Amino acid sequence: MKNLKTKDWALIAGEAGLFFIVTIVLWLDEFVDLPYRLLGAPPTPYRPQEYILETVSVLIVAIVVITRTILSMRRARRLERFLRVCAWCRKVWVDDEWVSFEEYALKKHSLKSSHGICEECVARLDKKKEQKRTGQTEILTNKPPHHMRMRSQKPLQ
């Protein structure tokens, strides 16, 4: 039940209220005989088994619908926590636009950023510098790391 916001609870309360109204109409139909009083239909006898069955049916449907609503809202909240990042340029999708990670950090979290270099990239750069110094043909490039490169695919036939 946690991770649901006030708007979510308002929707759930609205659903429960509507099911309650349906139940009240069923009870009024049984106890007051609404079709007879409002529409001029022939009177119907009092049948407690009928309104009990209808009330239980409405209650079961209400439980299923409200439970599914809560689960759907939880899932939506969980998915909202994902950060969509471009696989190629590493920009972030925020407020219906792609922005740099630095802009995202500033906009959403008021964080200023600084840049550094990780140990893997230092080692890769050192290796490429060494290769260039010793005359090997591989040139220092700005390619993404091997695990992030696109694999070639066969054309569809």
How would you characterize this protein structure?
The protein has a domain of 75 residues. Helix content is 57%, strand content 4%. It is built from five helices and two strands.
What portion of residues belong to β-strands? Answer: under 5%
For the biggest sheet, the summary is: 2 strands, antiparallel
**What spatial order of strands do you see in the largest sheet?**
1-2
Overall structural class, as computed from helix and strand content, comes to mainly alpha
> How many helices in DSSP terms?
5
Low-confidence stretches: none
How do the SSEs run, as a string of H and E? HHHEEHH
Mean pLDDT: 82
Amino-to-carboxy terminus distance: 49 Å
Q: Name the helicity range.
A: 55-70%
The general outline is rod-shaped
Short structural description:
The chain has helices spanning 6-32, 34-39, 48-80, 101-109, 119-133; strands at 92-94, 97-99. The chain is mainly alpha-helical and 157 residues long.
Which helices and strands occur, and which strands form pairs?
Blueprint: H1 6-32, H2 34-39, H3 48-80, E1 92-94, E2 97-99, H4 101-109, H5 119-133
Helix pairs in contact: 1-3
